[in-house]
Specification:
This protein has about 290 residues and is of the alpha+beta class. It has three domains: about 5-50, Uridine Diphospho-n-acetylenolpyruvylglucosamine Reductase, domain 2 (2-Layer Sandwich); about 60-175, Uridine Diphospho-n-acetylenolpyruvylglucosamine Reductase, domain 3; about 180-285, Enolase-like, domain 1, CATH 3.30.390. Helices cover about 35% and strands about 25% of the residues. The chain has 13 helices and 14 strands. A five-stranded antiparallel beta sheet has the order 4-5-10-6-7. Strands 11-12-13-14 form a four-stranded antiparallel beta sheet, with helices on both faces. Strand 2, helix 2 (about 35-40) and strand 3 (about 50) form a beta-alpha-beta unit.
């Protein structure tokens, strides 16, 4: 099936791209195109215009150390996320997630900003990011604003980025010294979307206790979610397998997974416990 006809724009600057989005109501930003173009071919999406950001790639593709946070440009590819040394040292959870996306061709073209704005609840990067509590920087005709991770993902395929705004950067605060992070995924085949996924950022306290933990879950609700009850249980507890098992049993509280050809709701609820425990143990091993 071929997509419906659409207008195509290739702005030379970010400012021009925002202007085009503002003046064309039914327009979409084209980043890597790995999600949007597939939907258009199936006519599940039919924007009247595409605004291609290829010409501003150099301005929005970077990984920068900003002392208190790591800044990642929205057009940074999944391949870069997987192999960048700064990300690998500080946030191995992102390296985990990027390495599990599709195949190498998809990782070469797909972007961190594109997958976040697409907001598929089964996507890897959004779930991993939620455990890191980042800020999403967007720019539009009214200027620039920052959106916390808790408010960025609104619903399936829906974010709080306005129609005429563009995600330009993701800012991830550094974890305390000695922290560990990890992302694990359950899928039928390597590179498939997740049946269930879990991300963990584990921060140590005194005498082997957990000072703070953030646990994110993917493919179990309309958006990636935090396992708040499991997080609350672990705070102040010893970081040992016995406590991880107890926390994982409550991780599915608040989850509302679908039943589909890949797994029933009941199966996914069980897998939340399994993969939460695996993510906690892997994060612990990296501390």
């Amino acid at each position: 099936m071929n997509p419906k006809k659409f207008d195509y724009y290739a702005p030379a600057t970010l400012r021009e791209a925002i202007r085009i989005l503002h003046t064309n109501e039914d327009s979409k930003v084209l980043a890597g195109g790995q999600s949007l173009l597939a939907l258009m071919k199936l006519r599940l999406a039919a924007p009247a215009a595409l605004v291609d950001l290829t010409a501003v790639q150099d301005d929005l593709s970077y990984v920068r150390d900003e002392k208190k946070h790591l800044a990642i440009g929205a057009l940074t590819s999944h391949d870069t996320i997987e192999h960048d040394q700064k990300i690998g040292r500080s946030f191995p959870i992102l390296r985990d997630a990027a390495s599990k996306i599709g195949d190498q061709q998809v990782r070469n073209r797909g972007t961190i900003g594109g997958t976040c704005c697409h907001a598929d609840p089964a996507s890897d990067i959004p779930t991993a990011l939620l455990a890191l509590n980042p800020q999403f920087v967007v720019r539009g005709p009214r200027g620039e604003r920052r959106i916390p991770a808790s408010k960025f993902f609104v619903d399936t395929f829906t974010t709080s980025v306005a129609r005429d705004e563009i995600l330009i950067e993701i800012r991830i605060p550094y974890l305390p010294r000695g922290s560990g992070s990890a992302y694990v995924k359950h899928s039928r085949r390597e590179g498939d979307f997740a049946i269930v996924s879990a991300g963990v950022a584990l921060m140590p306290g005194q005498k082997g206790t957990c000072r703070e933990v953030r646990i994110s879950l993917g493919s179990v609700a309309a958006t990636p979610i935090r396992a708040r009850e499991a997080e609350d249980y672990l705070k102040g507890k010893k970081m040992v397998e016995r406590e991880f098992e107890k926390a994982a049993k409550s991780a599915n509280t608040g989850a509302d997974p679908p039943s589909d050809m890949h797994g029933s709701r009941e199966y996914r609820m069980d897998m939340i416990e399994v993969f939460t425990k695996r993510a906690l143990k892997l994060a612990m091993s990296r501390m």
